[in-house]
Design goal:
The chain is α+β, with helices and mostly antiparallel strands and about 190 residues long. The protein contains three helices and six strands. It has one domain: 60s Ribosomal Protein L30, Chain: A (2-Layer Sandwich), CATH 3.30.1330.40. The chain starts with 12 loop residues before the first helix and ends in a 9-residue tail after the last strand.
Length: about 190
């Protein structure tokens, strides 16, 4: 038995106008590829980063983002952009609800595995953005764990970072971190991906 699609709310005049300005149909489904790049335009090679052994893919639960993106630039420069990552398991479940320290360590583990899947480590990370549900309550504990982790790795200097109090996508998640890593491989291995 096929489930009926969720009805879409009636589009406002503003929504219809903005969709039309983007070259999209004013209402209804948007055809795939309707806003494709011009033919023949070169693009930077990129692909999704995955670590399915520890973290599922966000589209599996309806979110439209990749866990990370690898962007390869000419000259052997690669950027790894790790999306906001939290204490989520291989089945998409929240791990350690209510346990801030355990969620921090799992978040670091998930990011470590995403980096490892691309041959990178935390030594390649140059920047993080750290989102805490309650920064006043949890920042000291977060900083203690982060400092212990970075020190254990021998990072010197530590990555640049910003800490932000934010509502995270699930009410039971207490911390989320995004990261940017840069790799230099003057003779990168041929990629089959």
């Amino acid at each position: 038995m096929n489930a009926s699609p969720t009805p879409t709310p009636e589009a406002s005049a503003g929504e219809r106008a903005e969709r039309a300005a983007l070259g999209l149909p004013e209402t209804g489904a948007i055809p795939a590829g309707v806003l494709a790049p011009p033919p023949g335009r070169p693009s930077i090679r990129r692909r999704a980063i995955r670590a399915p052994q520890v973290l599922n893919e966000a589209p599996e639960y309806g979110s439209a983002f990749s866990r990370g993106l690898r962007v390869d630039f000419p000259g052997g420069i690669t950027h790894l952009l790790i999306s906001g990552t939290a204490s989520v398991g291989a089945e998409g479940e929240t791990l350690y609800p209510g346990d801030f320290a355990a969620q921090c360590w799992r978040t670091f583990r998930n990011i470590t595995e995403l980096l490892r899947s691309e041959g990178a480590t935390w030594h390649d990370v140059i920047r993080t953005t750290c989102y805490l549900r309650d920064i006043e309550r949890d920042y000291a504990e977060f900083n203690r764990i982060r400092t212990a982790f970075y020190t254990a790795l021998g990072l010197d200097p530590f990555p640049a970072s910003t800490g932000i109090q934010a509502r995270i996508c699930r009410s039971d998640l207490l911390v989320e971190i995004e990261a940017l890593a840069i790799l230099y491989q003057p003779n990168p291995p041929a990629s089959g991906a």
